[in-house]
Write a structure and sequence with these properties.
Blueprint (H helix, E strand, L loop, with lengths): L1 H11 L4 H13 L16 E3 L2 E3 L3 E3 L10 H5 L5 E7 L12 E4 L4 E4 L8 H8 L8 E6 L8 H12 L5 E5 L14 H18 L7 E5 L5 H15 L2 E4 L20 E4 L3 H14 L6 E4 L5 H10 L3 E4 L1 H6 L2 H16 L26
Parallel strand pairs: 3-4, 3-13, 4-7, 7-8, 8-9, 9-10, 10-12, 12-13
Antiparallel strand pairs: 1-2, 5-6, 6-11
Length: 364
């Protein structure tokens, strides 16, 4: 079966990027992709926000934008899947081409622009969820022509909170004009207050946790402001990070200078540095989700040691195929045990602790 997955991945890479993406989502939605779910190692289980994650490896938002294929994705071995970004009203996103492979760099540039079928479509898809499918989060966005961002995000929370295991306020995509300005202290506090109110209205007894997805391209002041707002009750966790507008000089791909957000291997270092900063600024009091450049168990482990309780990936699947999920889980469990950890949560933030405070691990 792994050979079939590898062959399919190779064939898909012969297609234009967005065409390959559509074909993959359609195949997963139709149940045409054989499952790769193996038993989860008990060491990888973690409980957050009152929810049991069978393993910490999740599929990042951007792949299953309209909640069409989350069940198929979970059968590939992910511990959780995040759908979206979902906008209140349907919108086509930016003109094509808007998705570019950089195989020499194990990276992708995208400027999709929140293409979405809208809240009603996503709600209809999520209404058919089965509890045994697994954990599904919902990433919320705003319409490009909206003049009231808070109303857009609140509408998303109001419509989808009841069907989400967690909600994400995405104010960090570089492909919607003005969106990243919402990461400032005052606009962010106001925005999150509106979303929390809408969430409470929709789910008064058991509201899903509210996470904030931030950019890697932040000033020290930005990071401090975000941490302060989140710790004041604005968010139940942070996702670190979205794609970057930076273009490292080391990039070799011919599409490197295309406008949009860069993801994949070049994002690993910068996003992990911001992750460590946010763990330090929040004092480890908020669960963090580490995203950006994860392509191996070693990468996932580095995110966890930097402060992540959960890890997400997407770009690496384009190049390595769905078998990557199982490999990361296996490698991560091995690294935990090699360093003397019996449970995942013991390793979270390990790089911020003195060697004397750690178990009998290899000091790095």
């Amino acid at each position: 079966m792994p050979d079939l997955h590898r062959l399919a991945t190779a064939v898909l890479r012969l297609l234009p990027p967005e065409t390959a993406h559509r074909v993959t989502v359609a195949a997963l939605a139709a149940g045409l992709v054989p499952p790769l779910r193996a038993a989860d190692d008990p060491a990888l289980r973690i409980r957050l926000w009152g929810r049991e994650f069978p393993n910490p490896i999740g599929l990042a938002a951007g792949f299953d934008k309209d909640a069409r294929a989350f069940a198929g994705c979970l059968r590939l071995g992910f511990g959780f899947v995040e759908i979206g970004s979902v906008t209140p009203r349907p919108q086509p996103g930016n003109p094509q081409p808007r998705l570019f492979r950089l195989p020499e760099d194990a990276a992708i540039v995208n400027r999709m622009g929140f293409n979405s079928r809208g809240l009603d479509y996503a709600a209809g898809r999520l209404a058919h969820r089965r509890a045994k499918d697994g954990i599904v989060g919902v990433n919320l966005g705003k319409n490009k022509d909206s003049t009231d961002a808070a109303s857009d995000y609140a509408a998303g929370a109001r419509r989808l909170a009841a069907d989400a295991d967690y909600l994400v306020v995405n104010v960090s995509s570089p492909n919607t004009p003005g969106l990243r300005a919402l990461q400032g202290r005052e606009p962010l506090a106001e925005l999150l207050e509106a979303v929390r109110a809408a969430r409470a209205e929709a789910t008064p007894t058991r509201p899903p946790p509210l996470l904030l997805k931030i950019a890697p391209d932040l000033t020290e002041e930005d990071k401090s402001d975000i941490a302060e707002v989140a710790l004041a009750g604005g968010a139940d966790g942070l996702i670190v990070s979205n794609t970057t507008t930076a273009r490292p000089a080391s990039l070799r791909g011919r599409h490197a200078r295309e406008a949009g957000g860069l993801s994949g291997k070049p994002l690993f270092g910068p996003s992990t540095a911001v992750l460590a900063d946010m763990y330090r600024l929040t004092g480890g009091r908020l669960p963090l989700v580490g995203v950006g450049g994860v392509a191996s168990g070693a990468d996932a482990y580095a995110k966890i040691r930097a402060g992540a309780s959960l890890v997400q990936l997407y770009t690496a699947l384009v190049y390595q195929g769905p078998g990557l999920v199982h490999r990361i889980r296996r490698e991560l469990a091995a690294r935990l045990r090699a360093d003397g950890y019996q449970r995942l949560e013991q390793a979270v933030g390990a790089d911020h602790r003195s060697p004397a405070a750690r178990p009998a691990e290899t000091v790095r």
